[in-house]
Amino acid sequence: MGLALLLGACASQHRTDSTDEINTYPASYKADIQAAIRVYLKDPTGIRDAAISEPVLKPATVAMPARYVACLRFNAKQTATVYAGTKDVAALFLAGRFDQFIDAPKAVQELCANATYTPFPELQNLPRY
Fold first, then answer.
1. What is the pTM of this model?
2. Residues paired with residue 94 on neighbouring β-strands, in sequence order
3. Which residues pair with 44 in a beta bridge?
4. Distance between CA 43 and CA 50 in Å, rounded?
5. Coil, strand, or helix at residue 34?
6. What's the confidence (pLDDT) of residue 129?
7. Which residues, 6 or more positions from 4, have their beta carbon under 8 angstroms from its beta carbon?
8. Which helix (H) or strand (E) holds 20?
9. Dist. CA 97–CA 90, nearest whole Å
10. Is the Cβ–Cβ distance between 38 and 105 less than 8 Å?
């Protein structure tokens, strides 16, 4: 019984350490988002009105564990000459690196409710490759 408690305590401590590593601040968040947006959008060139918020550690909820979240706002091309309109997206980070975009309006609204946006010209100037 004592061995089981000791092992359980070690496992519990290990989970706490890994939680800290999972929620490392994403120092290169802008570069990560620039790379990920190329896969997320059909045509990532010519983006207009791009803005981004600093990553903020959002507390855990029933739907999502605690994660750093940066909010994006941009107007991307729908076709070669037509723009789709302004879109809000939340970028989630895991262990200091980009993990996924969330674009469900209700989820983004909750995650980005108090976001302070600043211009993100790097996203507007993505070259073709």
1. 0.82
2. 97
3. none
4. 15
5. helix
6. 65
7. none
8. helix 2-22
9. 14
10. no
Q: Cα dihedral sign for 17, 23, 29, 32?
A: positive
Q: Please state, in angstroms and rounded to a whole number, the distance separating the CA atoms of residues 124 and 108.
A: 21
Q: pLDDT tens for residues 71-96? A: 999 999 998 889 999 999 999 999 99
Instruction: Identify which of 127, 123, 126 has the alpha carbon closest to the alpha carbon of residue 72.
Output: 123
35 SS3 class: helix
- Residue 109 CA, distance from chain mean position: 14
Within the chain, strands assigned E span 48-52, 56-58, 67-77, 83-94, 97-102, 118-119
Residue 13: both structure tokens together: 């401590």
**What average pLDDT does the chain have?**
87
- Token readout for 30 is 């802008």
Tokens of 51: 């803005």
